[in-house]
Write a structure and sequence with these properties.
By secondary structure, the protein is an alpha/beta fold. Helices cover about 45% and strands about 20% of the residues. It is built from 13 helices and 11 strands. The strands form 2 sheets. Strands 3, 4, 5, 6, 7, 8, 9, 10 and 11 form a 9-stranded mixed sheet that branches. Strands 1-2 form a two-stranded antiparallel ribbon. It is globular and about 75 Å long. The N and C termini lie far apart (about 50 Å).
């Protein structure tokens, strides 16, 4: 039994199909299929039921998955022990973040860290929303995460930036006195909002202050929403970092009643980290993210 087979088995179980598992492991799909087939042959039981909707674990596969994950966790612990001895002359820091921070804020701090510690690898793990970031920390897939405040008590957090929600209006929109009202937004029905978990504070804000506002939130990609605004199809309310780059023709206003999302660095409380992670945390705490966000 080979480690490559175990990694392939866990990847297919988590992805639900062979093609996504192959992409995650950066292997070809035939290589993944061969690894699973040979593992099933060695174990003498089928691990997956294959069908048009993907690969579903068999009862035997479900029980074996627990042991396979345990094997990989022990391997990771062995690597962490080795990194402890390597100190700052090696190691790997994994940062889970949603797109807007991963795109506009983290590259600058990583570049600064790499200049100081070129032998330490730093990886950004993009997640769809902050809840996925927190889950990555719980599962040990990331050492550091970027999430929202307030965060669950299981995490230790440090605020890094406050990102204001802004109203984006089409190029032809006409607003009196350069001050937008909820009624102005209501003209552009439906107003597009983020449909991800990060949009929940905004939906509650709108429900409390402008329940008459007709909104739609079926589009997940912020860039698609911004493009629709630029074409005059709708208005939108998004966090500013999520909206940029904003086309110059799009009109940008603060909300009639301001709202900000407060973002923070998070780690699991009492987690054991290698020296490289502690050094990166030190830099994150000192870095002026707010100035960077305001200038972006």
């Amino acid at each position: 039994m080979k480690l490559s087979q175990i990694r392939a088995f866990v990847a297919v179980a988590e992805c639900g199909n062979f093609s996504e598992a192959a992409s995650e492991l950066q292997l070809s799909q035939p290589a993944i299929s061969h690894a699973i087939a040979t593992l099933e042959e060695e174990l003498g039981v089928p691990l997956f039921a294959r069908g048009r909707y993907g690969a579903v674990l068999t009862p035997a596969g479900e029980r074996i998955l627990y042991h396979a994950r345990t094997v990989l966790q022990h391997l990771e612990m062995m690597q962490e022990e080795a990194n402890l001895h390597k100190g700052l002359h090696g190691g790997h820091v994994r940062i889970a973040s949603f797109r807007s921070v991963a795109t506009h804020l983290l590259p600058q701090v990583i570049a600064k860290f790499h200049h100081q510690f070129p032998e330490i690898a730093v990886t950004i793990i993009e997640r769809l929303a902050y809840l996925d970031v927190e889950q990555s920390l719980r599962e040990g897939r990331a050492d550091i995460g970027i999430t929202y405040l307030p965060a669950p008590e299981e995490f230790e957090t440090w605020e890094i930036v406050q990102d204001e929600y802004v109203a984006l209006l089409p190029p032809h929109a006409k607003i009196e006195n350069f001050q937008i009202t909820w009624q102005d937004l209501a003209v552009y029905s439906p107003v597009m909002l983020s449909c991800l978990p990060c949009g929940r504070p905004l939906h509650e804000h709108i429900r409390n202050l402008a329940p008459f506002l007709n909104t739609a939130s079926h589009i997940q990609e912020d860039s698609t929403i911004v493009s629709m605004v630029n074409q005059g199809l709708t208005a939108a309310i998004l966090p500013r970092l999520a909206a940029i780059p904003i086309p110059p023709q799009v009109q940008v206003y603060g909300l009639p009643v301001p709202l900000k999302r407060v973002m923070a660095v998070a780690v699991l409380s009492n987690a054991l980290h290698i020296p490289a992670v502690f050094k990166f945390l030190e830099l994150l705490k000192k870095f002026d993210f707010q100035s960077l966000a305001d200038s972006t």
